[in-house]
Amino acid sequence: MSAPRLIVPLPCLCANLRRAARAVTQVYDRALRPVGLRATQLTLLQALERGEGITPSRLGVQLAIDATTLSRTLRPLQRRGWIASASATDRRKRRLHLTLAGRRQLARAQKEWKRIQVRLRKRLGRGEWKRMMVALERVTSAVLDGRSDPRYHSRRRKP
Predict the structure, then answer these.
(1) d(CA 70, CA 59)
(2) What are phi and psi of 47, to 5 degrees?
(3) Residues forming a β-bridge with 86
(4) Which residues in 69-127 belong to E strands, given as ranges?
């Protein structure tokens, strides 16, 4: 008699992606704990490094994060002095950037991040890793591109 499968196939793309995301996030969170970051926070620091002076709304679009979640995730990074915002005349146009302390924190976190990246790449194999990265970008693009389709939005009941 064989042992039961640990991972049971799920019929839903959403369920499979969320399960994989939770598992991967847990691995990254454990690796980043010694430097005082969570995977979600590291993602923001990395995105800000690449998109210096980006508006919060543009950052949210790039990361597919709603404004409330983005604000909630940015707040502790701003309190720690790792992220600052420069206000323009229009408050909606404020721009985010990494502070010097934020760049230092990112550099510390990158060491742990690279270690876990290498470990996961080895487990998946180089070819599977590349296919996975491309597939995930394609899924994200397909969903985000589909948002302009009126059928994407759920039907709301009229009051």
Answers:
(1) 8
(2) -65, -40
(3) 95
(4) 83-86, 95-98
pLDDT digits (tens, 9 = 90+) for 65-112: 999 999 999 999 999 999 999 876 666 678 999 999 999 999 999 999
Q: pTM of the full predicted structure? A: 0.81
Contacts of 46 (CB under 8 A, 6+ apart): 106
Burial class (CB in 10 A: 0-12, 13-18, 19+), 9: exposed
Q: Which parts of the chain are beta strand (E)?
A: 83-86, 95-98
- All structural domains of the chain: 13-143 (1.10.10.10)
Q: What is the CA radius of gyration of the chain?
A: 19
Alpha helix stretches (DSSP H) within 80-125 = 100-124
> Which has the closest alpha carbon to 74: 93, 56, 90?
56
Best CA proximity match to 20, nearest among 141, 157, 158, 132:
132
Contacts of residue 147, defined as CB under 8 A and 6 or more positions apart, other chains included, come to none
For residues 92 and 43, the model is more confident at 43
